[in-house]
Amino acid sequence: MRVPSDSAFEVHELRPEETRELRHRVLWPHKRSAQECVIDVDEADHATHLGVFMAEPAPWGVSLDGRAGALVGVCSLFDQPCTRCAVPWENEDALRLRVMGTLPEVRGQGAGTALIAGALDEVVRRGKSVLWCDAREVAFGFYERLGFGFMNEKYELPDVGPHRTMALVLSSPRN
C-alpha cells in the first residue's frame, strides 16, 4: 500500500523515546507519565518505530526537537510470533504491529493509513509477507478497510479493553 504523493502526512523512523508522549496521550492516558509508556521490546535490535508527521506545526500535535512539523501518530514493529491463535504463516514471515495510535484531530484524514503504508514498506524491506496486530475494538473497522482480517474472537487486555488479533497477508507464506 502506498500513500498518495499529495498526502498531507509523511512517515519517518523514530527513536523509541520519541513515541512515548503520543503513546501516553492516545493509548495509555491512565499511566502517570509519558516516561511510563514503554513496552518490553522497545529497544530490541529488531524494533522499528515509525511516526507520521503533518508538514505544519499544530498546537495539539507533538513537537520533537530537530524535526519539522507535528507528530500526529506512531506505531512500532517487531519480529514477534503470534501466540494468541493458530496462524497460516511461518513466524519468520511476519512482523508484529504494536502501540499504534493517531491523535483524534487527524483521524479520518489519512494519518493512520500513512502509518500502515510505512509499516507495510518495512514488512517488504525485511522480506516478510505478513503484518499482524492485537487490534483494539475501536480500530476494527480501520484495519478491515485496509484489508486486515480477524484471526480470533475478542479477548480483554487489562486497563486497555477488548481486542482481536488481525493480520494482513501481502503474499503467500513461504512453503
Summarize the structure in short.
It is built from 3 helices and 8 strands; from the N terminus they run βαβββαβαβββ. With 175 residues, the chain is of the alpha+beta class.
Describe what this molecule looks like in 3D.
It is a single chain. The protein is an alpha+beta fold. Helices cover 19% and strands 30% of the residues. The chain is built from 3 helices and 8 strands, in the order E-H-E-E-E-H-E-H-E-E-E. It has helices at residues 16-27, 111-125, 140-145; strands at 9-14, 48-54, 70-78, 94-102, 130-136, 149-150, 155-157, 161-169. Strands 1, 2, 3, 4, 5, 6, 7 and 8 form an 8-stranded mixed β-sheet that branches. Mean pLDDT is 90; it is low at 1-6.
Task: Give the CATH level 1 class.
Answer: Alpha Beta
- Element order: H for helix, E for strand: EHEEEHEHEEE
CATH topology: Aminopeptidase
Radius of gyration: 16 Å
Record field, number of beta strands? 8
Question: What descriptors fit this protein?
Answer:
19% helix, alpha+beta, 175 residues, 8 strands
Topology:
Layout lengths: L8 E6 L1 H12 L20 E7 L15 E9 L15 E9 L8 H15 L4 E7 L3 H6 L3 E2 L4 E3 L3 E9 L6
Parallel strand pairs: 4-5
Antiparallel strand pairs: 1-2, 2-3, 3-4, 5-8, 6-8, 7-8
